[in-house]
Amino acid sequence: MIKKLILPVLLLSISIGNAQGKKTKSYELASPGGQNKIKFELVNNAPKYGVSHGKTEVIAPSDMGFLLKNNENFSSNFEITNVKNSTFDETWEQVWGEKKNIRNHYNQLVVQLQQKDKNKRKLEIQFRAYDDGIAFRYVYPKQETKDSIFIMDEKTTFNLKEDGKAWWIPAYKENRYEYLYQNSSINAIDTVHTPLTIESKNGLKLSFHEANLIDYASTTLVNTTGTQLKTDLVPWADGVKVRVKDTFTSSWRTIQIAEKSGDLIDSYLILNLNEPNKMGNPSYVKPYKYFGIWWAMHIGKYTFWEGDKQGATTAHAKEYIDFTAKEGLHHLLIEGWNKGWTQQWYENHMHMFSFTQCADNFDIEKVVEYGKEKGVELIGYHETGSNLINYMKQIDAGFALYKKLGIHTVKIGHVGSKLNMKEWHHGQFGVNYFRYVLQKAAEYDLAVFYHEPIKDTGERRTYPNMLAREAARGQEYNAWSEGNPPSHVVILPFTRMLSGPMEYTPGVLDVEIKQGYPGKRIHGTTAQQLAMYVTFYSPIQMLADLPENYAVPGYQFLKDVPTDWETTKVLNGEIGQYISTARKDRNSEDWYMGSITNEKARDLDIPLTFLDSKSTYEAQIYADAEGTDETHNPSAVAISKKTVKASDVLKLHLGGAGGTAIRFKKL
Predict the structure, then answer these.
(1) What does the DSSP 8-state code read for residue 526?
(2) Is 618 a catalytic residue?
(3) Which residues sit opposite 581 in a β-bridge?
(4) Which of 312, 290, 291, 289 lies closest to 301, judged by CA?
(5) Is the peptide bond preceding residue 195 cis, with omega within 30 degrees of 0?
(6) 485-667: same fold as 277-471?
């Protein structure tokens, strides 16, 4: 009934805009609940848009359009040839995810433009207004004359009405996305990757990103003047931003808008802007937890390459398989199993890895067979070293080997500053490469998780074999660098993770890394590592530590916590300070909660209203022990149990850089 009342009002407001359009060329689109509005207008024949939330102007009139080759201006001298509006409302189901059922409800305005010069180029701009944000994209339809299109610049700007605090990482740097977040005013930011998160002075929380990125260049944002941000498409090596033939469709430019920080995480706008599932529900696509011969190599116990300390040996593999089977898990990653690894494997060279030939002392067929006997499946690993010329020659053979062996997941790494030492990972070349590999993997019944990847723009909705990716500074930096400061892990959920699942590789319970490089450690507590399995979403979660370090009571939480969820609720949180997240298991009636904090110790009151009001639960609590923080007995975990109901309020104490993990078992 409510929908029937709202819909005519919405269409009336648009029709008034249409009537006014003949005179002012101005149109307004409101979201279904009216929270967010987009205004489109032609000003001196140039397209402009603005955005408001309630009575607050978020984006003042901002530029749109392109610069094409030969300095052809494709951003002015337009007239409107048609305007269409529509509404859409559906609920769709994720194959796997942080929430099973997602509502996709928006109002759309499509403006068709044509330039008034001799070429009469046409451009369509599609706007969508959601209650959790807005989106728009450009469609260059087939024209009367065919030609190759070279986009030299996209002129899209975001003219923020107010300044604010921005959390950002720089673009065009050697380590891709793997940087610590900086926090500054808008006018002090560099050219930055998205998602870019801003806390505006008016209190609104904003995230700028893109969705459904196909055959186009990634967006970065550059501060041009004051509080204005401009799109800076990642170029090809020759400076061209995008090259296509006849037509193109840009990714959606997105702004998620929230009044509370946690509402940014509870938004599914990015997923909703992608195409529906094209794969169905493949049997080989499954969420899971896994162990790996991985951390031992990062802390220096083993090496990636062949030699006396080689990690990937048949003997080590069998030991890890035995441990994996004993602990009731079913997947194991082994890095370094193939030929081509050297001590310089991570440096910028055109490394020549083989994707079918085993390293000395490793027999993949024997290891796979041993795993099958124990109920453990190997996860394939392809480190390309960003030498895609070499990888593309072997990709079919490499994937075919995995299919023959019954391997159904492959981790693909791209260490190197540029692909083929030439092209950015996030330019059009990289966008097309990563999409091609994902589709190629599906031909061989393989699910994929990428490291050193293109950023996530929601393609997991369309291709659910796209499990997760890195695209940020992960756990391994704690093994051999100055490490990730406590604030890093409470920035990631509000920034990088807004784009999609992250392979952070948590679960290092020996946070002081006693067997590692001298002076290196994790800047947080063991309880915080446990809580990350709830606050950091990924359908595949690594238990990254050495097997011997799991002989501790807190490990039980990692055995219990699932990786596939019915629903997710962010209970509280402030960017860079703390976050508490609750998730309901998709396959049981249990709930799980994680709370983590920065270097500041924190007391939190957690209302348990997310629990079923008619049920009673046993809260199995894994908390920082009394007096525990980053530097004081950080591995100490206090384990307790308590009977709770939805009407209760749970009081938590988090030590500095600490956390609490809870399983709510329905009684």
Answers:
(1) H
(2) no
(3) 570, 594
(4) 312
(5) yes
(6) yes
From residue 456, alpha-carbon distances to 314, 442, 467, 502, 547 in Å are 35, 18, 11, 9, 31
Compute the average pLDDT of residues 226-243.
98
Residue bearing tokens 């769709």: 92
* pLDDT, tens digit, 9 for 90 and up, residues 60-100: 999 999 999 999 999 999 999 999 999 999 999 999 999 99
Q: Which residue in this structure is represented by tokens 């006693």?
A: 514
Q: Which residues of 605-620 are buried (b: 16+ CB within 10 A; e: fewer)?
A: ebebebbeeeeebebb
Given the residues 28, 210, 335, 476, select the one marked as catalytic. 476
* Global pTM value: 0.96
Helices (H), 252-382: 261-265, 269-272, 295-298, 314-326, 364-374
Domain 485-667 has CATH 3.30.1490.20: no
> In 10 A of CB 91, how many CB atoms?
9
Residue identified by tokens 């700007």 is 157
Distances from the Cα of 467 to the Cα of 410, 548, 618, angstroms: 10, 28, 32
DSSP state of 452: S
pLDDT tens digits, residue range 563-605?
A: 999 999 999 999 999 999 999 999 999 999 999 999 999 999 9
Residue 15 has pLDDT above 70, yes or no: no
Residue type, 585: D
**CA triplet 419, 383, 177: central angle to 5 degrees?**
55
For the chain, give percent helix, strand, coil, nearest 5. Answer: 20, 35, 45
Residues 554, 532 contacting (CB under 8 angstroms): no
Here the tokens at position 500 are 């999609």
The tokens for 11 are: 């269409």
| CA 135/CA 254 separation, integer angstroms | 4
CA angle 130, 135, 137 (to 5 degrees): 145
Every domain of the chain and the residues it spans:
2-272, 277-471, 485-667
CA separation for the pair 381, 353 (Å, rounded): 11
What whole-number distance in Å separates Cα of residue 489 and Cα of residue 659? 11
Taking the CA atoms of residue 258, residue 260, residue 266 and residue 268 in that order, the dihedral angle to the nearest 10 degrees is 10
The 3-class SS string of 91-158 reads EEECCCCCCCEEEEEEEEEEEEEEECCCCCCEEEEEEEEECCEEEEEEEECCCCCCCEEEEEEECCEE
Place of tokens 């994902």: 438
What is the CATH class of 2-272? mainly beta
Contact 209, 202 (CB under 8 A): no
In 173-256, which ranges are continuous DSSP H helix? none
- Decide: 295 and 334 in contact? Cβ < 8 Å: no
Pairing of strands 377-383, 331-334: parallel
Q: Which tokens sit at 565?
A: 């969820």
Spatial separation of the C-alpha atoms in residues 280 and 94, rounded to whole Å: 10
What topology does CATH give the domain 277-471? TIM Barrel (3.20.20)
Q: How confident is residue 607, by pLDDT bands cut at 50, 70 and 90?
A: very high
Strand-pair partners of 255: 134, 208
For 95-99, the CB contacts below 8 A with 24+ separation are: 95/277, 95/281, 95/285, 95/464, 96/285, 96/286, 96/287, 96/464, 96/539, 96/564, 97/460, 97/539, 97/564, 97/565, 98/537, 98/565, 98/568, 98/583, 99/268, 99/565, 99/566, 99/567, 99/568
pLDDT at 301 > cutoff 70: yes
Taking only Cα atoms into account, the Rg of the chain, rounded to an integer number of angstroms, comes to: 25
